[in-house]
Amino acid sequence: MIVACKQTNEFWTLMNHFGYAGKKKLKDLLQQSDNRTCADCGAHDPKWASPTIGVFICLKCCGVHRTLGPNVSKVLSVTIDDWADEEIDAMIEVGGNDSANSIYEAHLPEGVKPGPDASIAQRTKFIRSKYEHQEFLKPGLKISSNKSTAEASPPKETSVRAPSSSSVQKLECVDGVIGHLKFTILQGANLAIRDMLSSDPYVVLTLGEQKAQTTIMRSNLNPIWNEELTLSVPQDYGLVKLQVFDYDRFSADDIMGDADIDIQPMLTSAVAYGDASMFGDMQIGKWLQSHDNALLEDSTVNIVDGKIKQEVSLQLQNVESGIIYLEIEWIPP
Ligand SMILES: [Zn+2]
């Protein structure tokens, strides 16, 4: 029941971004089973698409598509970007991931296609081979976005539309880092007791190999930290893990609960809006509360005074009690 509500919510947030005429058509296309996994790596629930090619793709593959340039693949977020009617039509004309792959992967050798956990290097090699060099097409076929230079007429279902005029912000990448997230750990409430009467809590954030931690608050179950912890975001980021520990001078520190932070809504919004200082204050994304995450309530991503920020309230998991309030801010590279 909760899952169904969540999907409906997300879906209508998403649909509000499309023009009325395109809504129904794109809705049908998105619900097609082949479009529920990434056309390039098979990752579930892709939230990006290339109307130039006509495929739905995941964020990681999207990063690679951007490097091909908009002539080969212009990418749009299905949750955030405004779509032109002709871009929706282009997706519909191709007919979905299976249809596109029946052309682009017609002669795909075994073992070449990467999986959802593939490295950026593996993805890049495959995606360039597939769309730029078109190595897996039927012999003699060549698909070009510029029809005057096409070596052969593409089949109708893969005819390619010119990119629309709507601008897409670039995902900049400096030394494999796409930007930084500044976490302000605001406060804890009703934390668990690990010593005789109280605890000496501190918070640890982990993203990949990176760790950052707050100071230790002595004998306090409702500590106010107001401390900033900054993490670099690599291109193939995952969840940020938040853990609360009780400092113990004489033995190993005890765990006081944990929670996973999904940073994808923040990053998807940040990538789509690029230079947030060009926009007024508004809501640009949302991480929805559900039974399978630690959110106390829906967490919105907002532009505030030219900065992209998200307020998050987390119910600590694997512990008897405890809430952590924090704020996340996107720092572009
Ligand atoms: Zn993918």
From TrEMBL:
It comes from the Eukaryota. Signal peptide: none annotated. Keywords: Calcium, GTPase activation, Metal-binding, Zinc, Zinc-finger. Residues 144-165 are annotated as: Disordered. CDD domains: ArfGap (cd08204), C2_ArfGAP (cd04038). Residues 162-276 form the C2 domain. GO terms for molecular function: GTPase activator activity; phospholipid binding; zinc ion binding. Pfam families: ArfGap (PF01412), C2 (PF00168). PROSITE patterns: ARFGAP, C2. Residues 23-147 form the Arf-GAP domain. InterPro entries: ARF_GAP_AGD11/12/13, ARFGAP/RecO, ArfGAP_dom, ArfGAP_dom_sf, C2_dom, C2_domain_sf. Gene3D superfamilies: Arf GTPase activating protein, C2 domain. This is Uncharacterized protein.
